[in-house]
Structure formats: structure tokens, C-alpha cells
Design a protein that fits this description.
The chain is mostly helical and 438 residues long. The protein is built from 20 helices and no strands. The chain has a single domain, classed as Growth Hormone, Chain: A (Up-down Bundle), CATH 1.20.1250.
Length: 438
């Protein structure tokens, strides 16, 4: 395939005109917003999904089953990282990112249309599982692809702020998801939410998908990949090369991503469900708190990305990782002793500020670990494996720990473990802020 057909131009990031760069950033952000909104809403509506897709009886067991399927979807992320990542490293970032949005749209629409367990029996949770697997496969390629695409479009000295747009769009997706949950839980009765209200956000996600597809189909290829393609240096086996030549950076990406993923899926996804199911906080209050925390995260993320361009990425990430390790147990103890909406907002707000410190520099520091010819694949594998083992399992592990120990503070132990993993990884890493990508 010719470079022209792939949308490739040999220009470097510093030579791009402002309009081309702006289109690339907007297309990546909008597509990533649609993708992550579709992926996150499952966790936010887990209680209603549990009531629809599993036999009546023990509410805790049904919720664990719902979170188990939520977690299983994450096990497809490394598969998506390998397949879509390799495709993106061989045929271009743009083409791969169009595929991810299309897959996510189809799986999300079907999720919102599946009949309940009482209607079709065992087929209901099986179809739910299938949809979640497709969502996981799609997101496995999306996260690393959009991070790679943005950083490769960044001009010198601005990889942190441009890369943070990816996490900024994740924050917007979280705001949209939690706000949708807050509005629906505030307007509809518990019975209506279980019967049909939970389906609305999935259908909204499907309606938004064509916007992301349209924008991504019209954008230019990244300048870094264009240079590699022009020189005929595209990797023939990016997966093999990532796991052999670049295995240590892949392990570094895995380790440094741990606390960010656990914190996100514990504080932002699981905690609203825990607040309503275990702590007696009204659903509307819990999701309003989550929305406010998402706003804090979204506003601060580009600030931290910009700051990392000025001061270096490693120090900012280290402060956040250590703070999570030190504060998670006191935070859960504070919340669960005489819980109320105000305490929930304080805990989620503090976590959001720390998570912004992590999210802002994250895309840039991950992209800087790898050369262009394997960046999409290697970054996706390292981050995807971390999200699978740490983030995807976080809601299930939190619910399981509480069920087994009877201690509502117990989810903090998993957060502390993840913080230790990331702190050690960061301490051993070299900071490559603003060094050449290749």
C-alpha cells in the first residue's frame, strides 16, 4: 500500500501546521471519549446488571458475578493489545483506531439490547460475557493506540500536555458516565432502573460512535509512523520484537501503570456501588460525588501533563504513587466510620487529585519507553496487562475482600500493594522527558 493511500506524509511533528495537529488531537480525543464511555458504564451500572442477568437470590453473589464478567472483559485487553497493536505498527495508527471504535460501538449497542435472565435464561449472561469480551478486545488496542498517536503528533517539549489529552478524554468519559448514572438514579425509581433505566447509557454510547468514526477516518497519519514507513523500517513482527528486544521497558510499563489503574477502578468505578450497597449512601448522592471527582480529575490532568514537560515526569508520578500507598487505608477508614455523602466526596476528591498527577504524564512516559516501530504494540501490551491484572480485577477483589473479611476497609490493602509495585518500578526507571522519541 502506498504512503498516500495510508494517509502518510514524511513531515515531522515539528513541521506540521496547526490545523493538521488540531484535527489529529480532536479526533483522537473524541474517539477515545466514545470508547472509554462505552467501556466504563458497565461498572457504574453493575448493580442493575446483576439484577437483570443472574438468578434472583443473594444480592452479594449476583454483584460478584456481575463484577466477575466486568473483570473477564479485561482479560481480552492484552489480546486486543497484541492484535490491534501489531496491526497499528504495521499498517498505521489511524487505521487501527478506526477499527477499535467500530468494534466498541457494536458490542455496546448489543449490551443495551440483551433480554434479561428471566426472559432467555442462561443465554443472557453468556451474551453479556460475549459483549464484554469484544469491548475488552477493542479497548486493548484503543488505549495504547490513542496514547501513541497523540504523543507522536506532539511538537518538541510538549509531549506531556498533548499526551494528557488522552487521559483528559478519559476524564470526560468518566464525567459523562457518572453524570448519566447520577441523573438516572435521581429521576427513576430503583425498580425502573433495574427494569429499563440501566439500558439508556449503553444506547447513548452507540449513538455517539459514528462521530468518533467520522473524525478518525478523516485524520492524517502520525508523523513518527510516517517517517518509519518512508524509510521502510516498519517492524515485520512487532509482538516478537516487543517481548524480546524491549521486554524490560514492557515490564516497566506494566509496573508503573499498576497504581493508576487500581485507583481508578476502585475509587471511581467500585466505590459508588460500595457506597450504595454497603454504606447506605443514596445512589444519587454517590454518583454525584463520583461526577464531582471526575471533574477534578479532568481539570487537573492536562495541568499535570504540562507540568511534567517542565519538571520531568518521574517525580510527579512518584509523589502520587507514594501518596496512594500512605493514604488509602486512612481514607477508607475515614469513609466507613459513620459514612455519609460529604465523606465520600472528600475521599473521591483527594483520590481524583492524586490520579490526575498520575494520569497527566502517563501517556508521555509510556510512549518514551519505546521506539516508533514497536511503540503501539509494546505500550499496549505493557499497559494492557497491568490494567487486566490490577485494574480489571480491582472491583471484584474489593467486593470479595469485603465479603470474606466483613471489613469495609479491606480494599485499601490492594491499593497499597499496587502503590508499592509502581513506586519500585518508578524508582528503577530512567526519566526520558523531552528526549528524542527515536
Amino acid at each position: 500500500m502506498s504512503q498516500a493511500a495510508m494517509g502518510i506524509s514524511p513531515a515531522g511533528a515539528a513541521d506540521l501546521d496547526a490545523a493538521t495537529r488540531r484535527r489529529a488531537i480532536i479526533s483522537s480525543a473524541v474517539g477515545n471519549f466514545v470508547e472509554l464511555y462505552d467501556f466504563l458504564i458497565y461498572g457504574l451500572f453493575a448493580a442493575q446488571i446483576a439484577a437483570n442477568f443472574f438468578p434472583k437470590g443473594n444480592e452479594t453473589v449476583a454483584l460478584l458475578q456481575a463484577f466477575a464478567i466486568y473483570g473477564v472483559g479485561f482479560f481480552m485487553r492484552p489480546v486486543g493489545a497484541i492484535v490491534i497493536g501489531a496491526y497499528g505498527d504495521r499498517h498505521g495508527r489511524k487505521n487501527a483506531l478506526v477499527v477499535t471504535v467500530g468494534l466498541m460501538a457494536a458490542a455496546t449497542a448489543l449490551t443495551g439490547l440483551i433480554p434479561s435472565y428471566t426472559s432467555i435464561g442462561l443465554a443472557a449472561p453468556l451474551l453479556l460475557l460475549l459483549c464484554r469480551l469484544v469491548q475488552g478486545f477493542s479497548t486493548g488496542g484503543e488505549w495504547g493506540g490513542s496514547a501513541t498517536f497523540l504523543v507522536e503528533f506532539a511538537p518538541p517539549g510538549k509531549r506531556g500536555i498533548i499526551g494528557s489529552v488522552q487521559q483528559f478524554s478519559v476524564g470526560l468519559a468518566l464525567i459523562a458516565g457518572t453524570l448519566t448514572a447520577a441523573v438516572l438514579n435521581g429521576w427513576l425509581s430503583k425498580e425502573a432502573m433495574i427494569e429499563w433505566g440501566w439500558r439508556i447509557p449503553f444506547l447513548i454510547g452507540f449513538v455517539l460512535a459514528p462521530v468518533g468514526l467520522y473524525l478518525r477516518a478523516r485524520v492524517a497519519e502520525s508523523p513518527a509512523f510516517s517517517r518509519v514507513a518512508a524509510k521502510k523500517e516498519v517492524a515485520h513482527s512487532p509482538v516478537l520484537e516487543s517481548l524480546s528486544t524491549h521486554r524490560l521497558p514492557v515490564l516497566a510499563a506494566f509496573g508503573l501503570s499498576a497504581i493508576g489503574t487500581v485507583a481508578n477502578y476502585t475509587y471511581n468505578i467500585y466505590l459508588p456501588t460500595m457506597a450504595t450497597q454497603k454504606l447506605g449512601i443514596a445512589a444519587g448522592t454517590a454518583y454525584t460525588s463520583a461526577t464531582m471527582a471526575a471533574v477534578v480529575l479532568t481539570v487537573l490532568t492536562p495541568v499535570m501533563g504540562w507540568l511534567s514537560d517542565k519538571t520531568g515526569r518521574k517525580s510527579i508520578l512518584l509523589v502520587a504513587a507514594v501518596a496512594y500507598g500512605l493514604l488509602s487505608y486512612p481514607a477508607f477508614s475515614f469513609l466507613t466510620s459513620q459514612p455519609d455523602g460529604t465523606k465520600l466526596m472528600i475521599v473521591q476528591g483527594i483520590s481524583a487529585a492524586l490520579l490526575a498527577m498520575y494520569a497527566g504524564p502517563l501517556c508521555a512516559i509510556l510512549a518514551e519507553l519505546f521506539p516508533t516501530k514497536v511503540r503501539f504494540t509494546a505500550l499496549s501490551i505493557g499497559y494492557g496487562m497491568s490494567v487486566t491484572l490490577f485494574g480489571g480485577c480491582a472491583p471484584f477483589i474489593a467486593a470479595y475482600l469485603i465479603a470474606e473479611t466483613g471489613n469495609p476497609v479491606s480494599p485499601a490493602f490492594f491499593l497499597i500493594f499496587a502503590a508499592i509495585v509502581s513506586t519500585i518500578t518508578l524508582a528503577l526507571m530512567k526519566d526520558r522527558t523531552n528526549e528524542p522519541l527515536d
